[in-house]
Specification:
Elements lengths: L2 E6 L2 E9 L4 H18 L6 E5 L12 E7 L11 E5 L2 E10 L1 H15 L5 E3 L5 E4 L5 E2 L4 E12 L1
Antiparallel strand pairs: 1-6, 2-4, 2-5, 3-4, 3-8, 6-10, 7-10, 8-10, 9-10
Amino acid sequence: MKMELIDRQPTTVAYLRHVGPYGAPLMTFWQETVYPWMVTSGLLQQPRYGISHDDPTITAPHQCRYDAACEVPPALTTLGNALKTTIPGGKYAALSFKGTVAGIEEAWNAMLRDWLPSSGLQLDGRIMFEYYPQDSSYDPATGVFDCKLCVPVVPL
């Protein structure tokens, strides 16, 4: 597993929240709710983030929270039905992922279960997220997309 350690600056994002099962329903949420919001808000060219707040092995699927977010200027005040927050800066372990929704859970598990315990690092209280840069891709025919899985880390 090829991990990279990156330093990120705090990033202001606007987001829409999905409450319900992860997996395929999130793809539908992005396509039917988030994408139209991005179009009407002029955010199509902005980097995007996927923030899962709950562990689906512990939290009931209908209670899992997920935020679909786009970078926005800090001074932005008009968001429609979106909320605004800041993704904290600091050191993150990042793994480049290319695959489908079916494979992303295993990639997250491999980072947290296999790589992290032997890394000399530990999680801290900041959020984990998927980062979709401006040049990330999605193939609707295959469902293949690419992103970076980002885990906040500090020394042991």
